[in-house]
Amino acid sequence: MGNQACCTGTEASTQSEIAENSRKEPTLGNANIPGADVSTPAAAAGAIEAAPQADSKPEPAPAPAQAAPAEATQLASNEYAVTLDKSNGDRMGIDVDHKDGETLLIEMINPGLVKTWNDNPSNQDKVSMGDRIVEVNGIRSDVLQLVDECKKNQVLNLKIRRAA
Known about the structure:
The chain has 164 residues and is of the alpha+beta class. Helix content is 21%, strand content 19%. It starts with 10 loop residues before the first helix and ends with a strand.
């Protein structure tokens, strides 16, 4: 009876094997994870320290910097002017591409103000696919500002460059 089976062991050794083979999943914000820095980020710490006191009035936020519209430039020989009244909220009716970062390439003309412009016989310069909007209300060379200006419900003074 002195023989014991090789696969039996004490309960303590079984528990230690389970503990060795078990891995605890890290929990969010657990500071015991190697390499984890769960302290407050420096930027947030500065923001917390700079927060206004309850009894003081917060300072008004500074106005966002806006580029002043450039003065209207002269038309180049391959450019023409178009004026669209978008103050009623009408759509321009064009699809544009702005990948060059400076101009709006007219890819499609749909029903809207541009088509109405083209249909008016008194307008000699017709907007065509492939033309590029190079200026809107004095703004040039910044495609994001051009798009923003075109979205406003106001009169739009466009300068458009003919397709080559």
